[in-house]
Amino acid sequence: MDPLAHFTEEVREAVTRFLELPGRRVACLDADGTLWAADIGEAFLRWLAEGGLLPGQGGDADTVWLKYEDKVRQDLTGGYAWAVQCMAGLSEGDVVRWCRQLAAAWPNYRPQMRGLIRFLRDEGAEVYIVSASNRWVVEAAAPRIGVDPACTIAMATQVENGVLTDRLVPPPICGPGKIQAILERVGCLPGLAMGDGMGDLAVLEAARYRVVVGPHDRETELVRHARLAGWPVQVF
Fold it and tell me: pTM surpassing 0.90?
């Protein structure tokens, strides 16, 4: 079966042209809302809050969630960073185990994206996940969508003696921070980028070819931007 059959003609053309590029062909794909529906990092935050597993956060789970939403509204990057920083005090071993459990039960992986990733890798492209969700859950989910966990770039805090701290590992993986992290880890800008939110805009603008992913039931700010810019849009 054609691995691009589920994609629009514009997306198929962008992928084909990307694979024709000389030299390294690097694809950087957002995770939440792009490779899978919904936000696995937010789901993990909710799970921790509901279980009373955020030692530094007072109040019930709803209070924690409202605090997170408020921070995201004020500053997208700061809000996503806080979702990781608030896990300070947790054992990294526990976090790894819990994230693997969530990734195994996560029902939202997109088979179309799994097929695309397999196709890109078979054609010799390097595929990276670049996400504002926490590193541990992205690494756990990556193999289930066809990406090596070593090829993930995600938000993280420093770990001391096996315990998470609230000190963010720079740069924050959102907006321009994604570009900085890609250059540091990969060594070049992507030839192909895919994303669904405004936190992906910097990467999309930096890529040679870009694809914006949107939901079928509404038009997001990034989709509106893409249509004005003439970028391919894929709706799921």
Answer: yes
Class of the 9-235 domain?
A: alpha beta
Q: Among residues 36, 7, 32, which one has the least CA distance to residue 109?
A: 36
Name the CA radius of gyration of the chain, rounded: 17
Per-residue pLDDT of the chain (236 residues), as tens digits, is: 798 999 999 999 999 999 999 999 999 999 999 999 999 999 999 999 999 999 788 778 999 999 999 999 999 999 999 999 999 999 999 999 999 999 999 999 999 999 999 999 999 999 999 999 999 999 999 999 999 999 999 999 999 999 999 999 999 999 999 999 999 999 999 999 999 999 999 999 999 999 999 999 999 999 999 999 999 999 99
To the nearest 10 degrees (0 to 180), the angle between helices 9-19 and 111-122 is: 20
